[in-house]
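re: ur question from earlier - yeah i can do the single chain one, its not a big deal. heres the input i used so u can compare w yours
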Amino acid sequence: MSQTEVGQSWVSTTKLPRDAGAGLTSRRLRLRRFTGDDFPWLAAAYADHEVARFIGGTKTVDECRALFEQRFLAYYDQHPGLGVWLTCKRDDGERIGFHLLNHIQGEPLVQVGYALLKPWWGCGYATEMCRALVHYGAASYGLRTVVAIANLDNHASHRVLLKSGLARKADRSFPHAAYAAQGALAYFERDAAQWLAEFAPKEVLPGIFEG
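and the output i got, formated as tokens:
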């Protein structure tokens, strides 16, 4: 993908926020924080086997609520600027999935990731906002390295992460209970400064870090 295509497809049209949940945007999408009113939507997403297959599997309402309260809502205050955010269409606000920039559990590593509802698969939304999040993490939040993990057979996510500018490294296993049963995972990594040098659209750099 050329520099011009990158700029047209994903870069925010506004200044990068200090917190992605305050409205990080790409050409077609906007992020916002989850609120309690969004729990039924999340529970329905985690009840769908195809949607939940690569994000820990389906969950009961009680399991989903525990995840929501601990990994979503509480995390915002524990790690300002990081989190799991609702991914919404800019034109009408429809919730199409979520994107994240948070710690791999039990590790200091900060990962980028996503999950989309089935009607929005194959539309380029996953890559579009993952790119915007890597940009935000590197340029606004100040990460030195951005990583990602995915199931070994989740080839669609592998393509998204590669198109987002990350590089595939040796497979890794993680001891935390959230990952241990999955065994080795595909592991991706990129130095933030190198990512910015290669992908950040130079023509908009002077203004986007304010605010």
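The chain has a mean pLDDT of 90. not sure if urs matches, ping me
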